[in-house]
Amino acid sequence: MMRRFVLRRLALVPFTLLGAALLVFAMLRLVPGDPVEIMLGESAAPADVAALRHDLGLDLPLPAQLARFLGRLARGDLGDSLAFHAPVARVIAARYPATLELALAALLLAVAGAVPVGALAATRPSSPLDRTARLVSLAGVCLPTFVVGPLLVLAFAIRLGWLPPSGRGGIAHLVLPAATLALGMAGILVRLARARVRAALAEDHVRTARAKGASPLRVLVCHALPSALPALLAVIALEAGALLGGAIIVETIFGWPGLGRLVVQAIAARDYPLVQGCVLAIAASYVAANAVGDLLHGALDPRLRDAGS
Amino acid sequence: MQGRSRGAWLAGAAALGIVVLLAAAAPWIATADPLRTDLAGRLRPPGPGHPLGQDALGRDVLARLLFGARASLLVGGATVALSCALGAPLGLLAGYRGGWLDEAIGRVIDVLLAFPGLLLAIALAAVLGPSLRNVVLALSLLGWTGYARLARAEAAAARGCEFVTAATALGAGPLRIVVRHILPQAAPTLVVQATFGLCGAITAEAGLSFLGLGVPPPQPSWGSMLGEGREFLLVAPHLLLAPGTALAFTVLALQLLGDGLVARLGAPQDWQRGQ
Prior knowledge:
A: MetI-like fold, B: 74% helix
């Protein structure tokens, strides 16, 4: 049963990736006008225009273009970046670790902050703690990163001078961007952890544990939380993927040298091969995070596994 | 609990009403032209004549804020309308018909959902170039999937219900059944989705404009105001605070409204369950 579930879920991955590749392929063809002229500018020499057109395969018939695009993609060849004068794959590989570092730090911050707060709030509904948790969660959901980020820079980097305003380096550089990125996810997680733990606290086995004299802390940590965990993990994995999208704006705010900032730079430079490569790389990571989330959920929650097969 | 959720719902609706009213009355409230530059007054803090100060080109921040609200609401409203007009019929059709059509629409949605939120919109806006119309197109490309999924689920659930069987027995055609019998069932869920969708579209428009991919300058937009204000954090924090507060206020209004609608219309939602 478990094996079938895993296989079914994994079978979706290449299919989704192929769809994403097709969409990215279509992107360049949607450019109004001539993408090559836009990339090189109007004053480019006709020979250069022809050479780039040939290099991108835009002089071929559409089916041949697609075959070439997918064939190269299968070999990991994403073409060459015009702005960096280097293979797109290499440019992306150089920036990828920075984005991963930022996303993981934000994930850690959000989970470590939100799950305990949500769980505690669940044990005391309508208490001051619960109300505060609700307010903070609403703020997390309502304040976009591009409002919070600059405000944090103003407070902690400019006024107080505690942390660097931008760039990548040690832990100190990581704090502000990770906190900014984590806030939205934390808002969602507080809500969810509170609801799930509250539902779990009403379950029979938890009531039994309480009746047998387990302390409130023990009931929460050993009985209610494990029951609430599978659904939480699935959402955490989904949101971890969404962090990659949020990273585009956060990296731009904090000058973080990752994939998100790269895609914005590539757009500004009209470096379409690099834009395509970045979009594909981010989408692939997102697909992977979602698959991991679904598999974890299935592994931890037998109900879902059986329903799916 | 009933009282509180009702209060939040009303507060959200009222707050949204204020934003809409201010946007509609922008030409009469604004004391200055949102596009007129005044280099002598650049980065001037709030004061007489300019209640919210002036930006890096000396333009009146209040006027830009009011006219920026129009951009936000216009993009948000158009995105919701287009997404719903596209997604709801497709979803209803897929759910009611089932079979290969259902399968095909489901696959297209799967692929579109393989992109994290803003990425697809950023990529499309970058390719098409910055304009209000292109922002709406870019956001709707992903936006319709939400309505389609909900409508599909409602239609699939209704297919086996007695009222549909009865209508079929009375000789109603598929179109009549979907429009007259299934759509009313799905409407409350779609309204909730539209509320959160408006919230998401307004935030996304601001994000795109923040990156310079949304509303083209010099037209005012909250997102581009935030982007410009970021460069003058130290000397003119009002450039950031004004659009930031406006955006947060609007998003909060829509969240409260959405949560309230969820509670009223009885759709399942985690936060309300424990209250």
